[in-house]
Write a structure and sequence with these properties.
alpha+beta, five-stranded antiparallel sheet, three-stranded mixed sheet
């Protein structure tokens, strides 16, 4: 016999666009935003592309929120928007659509991401930077550089987005971006310390002792002989990972400044104190050697962490020597 279902199989998301009811019901905030953005792009009668934080979400760039509250799209000049603004009658809450126009969009600026037309990763970061704080702008650009994007390509692409505003703030953030920040936590830790008057550290620096390579530290403050590590919870999900980190810290000669979960101002004072106190004696073993900064690909070995603790470790100053292998 014919079976009936009380729930609809498909739900209308935009005028003329339908999605699986089960897919929508099981979607989290980020996936629901992608569905809404895909529906808005599909409903448009002329080409349009995901823009700003919407594009950044499709491109898996770090954002300070789970999902944007507004679907942001880009189109060429003088296009019909009635299909995007026409109401769709159903119980779903449909987010607003903000549409910006530019006549300078080329095929090289856009691509298909997860089946949806979007700005490329570089342009997504540059346009999303207009929606976040100055610190978070640096996080976005650090993420681009970590993936190997040429800084000159970012600077060249920025010139065409002046009509979105905040050009001076974006330019300042670009000067602070570095290619060695693996996670948003590392970027924010570095910027916060620098805002407290501490000199800019080198990133992903290899450390050696007589036993060979110890590992790559997130930040090295050469002037003070201090190592800074910004580790999220994801790094220590397994007990073996925690034990390995303890062995590494013993070889470096760590004196921890424990994480504080109170005000950021207190954490900054702790960081200042760690640098002002300078290096301590190693507990055991030979002095650590600092190798030169180099591009290190740790993406396969170290997962991106969530928000977690930050600690600084004082290590003895030693002769600067080239890293071996």
């Amino acid at each position: 016999g014919v079976q009936t279902c009380a729930l609809p199989i498909f739900t209308r998301v935009r005028h003329g666009v339908y999605a699986s009811a089960a897919l929508i019901a099981g979607a989290d905030a980020a996936e629901r935003h992608r569905i809404d953005a895909a529906a808005a792009v599909a409903a448009s009668r002329q080409p349009c592309w995901a823009l700003g934080s919407t594009a950044a979400l499709f491109q898996s760039l770090p954002l300070p929120f789970t999902a944007p509250s507004t679907v942001r799209l880009l189109r060429r000049e003088r296009q019909d928007l009635r299909s995007l603004t026409q109401a769709s009658r159903h119980p779903l809450e449909i987010p607003d659509v903000e549409v910006r126009a530019s006549s300078h969009i080329t095929d090289a600026d856009v691509e298909i991401v997860r089946g949806v037309a979007s700005l490329t990763r570089v342009h997504a970061a540059l346009t999303a930077a207009r929606e976040v704080s100055s610190w978070r702008k640096v996080v976005l650009f650090d993420a681009l550089l970590w993936q190997g994007t040429d800084p000159d390509d970012i600077a060249a692409a920025e010139q065409r987005w002046g009509f979105l505003g905040q050009g001076a703030e974006v330019a300042r953030a670009l000067t602070l971006a570095q290619p060695g920040a693996q996670t948003p936590l590392e970027s924010l830790s570095r910027i916060r310390l620098m805002r407290r008057g501490i000199s800019e550290p080198r990133l992903q620096v290899p450390l050696h002792d007589d036993g060979g390579l110890i590992g790559y530290v997130d930040m090295l403050f050469d002037r003070h002989g201090v190592v800074g590590e910004a580790d999220g919870r994801m790094k220590y999900l397994k007990g073996d990972d925690l034990l390995e980190e303890k062995r590494r810290e013993d070889r470096i000669g760590v004196r921890r400044v424990p994480p504080r979960r109170r005000r950021a101002r207190r954490r900054d004072r702790l960081g200042d104190r760690a640098l002002q106190e300078g290096p301590t004696e190693r507990r055991r073993g030979a002095p650590t050697r600092f190798g030169p900064q180099e591009r290190i690909d740790r993406r396969e070995s170290t997962p991106r962490g969530g928000v977690g603790g930050r600690h600084c470790a004082s290590v003895p100053r030693g002769p600067a020597r080239a890293a071996c292998g």
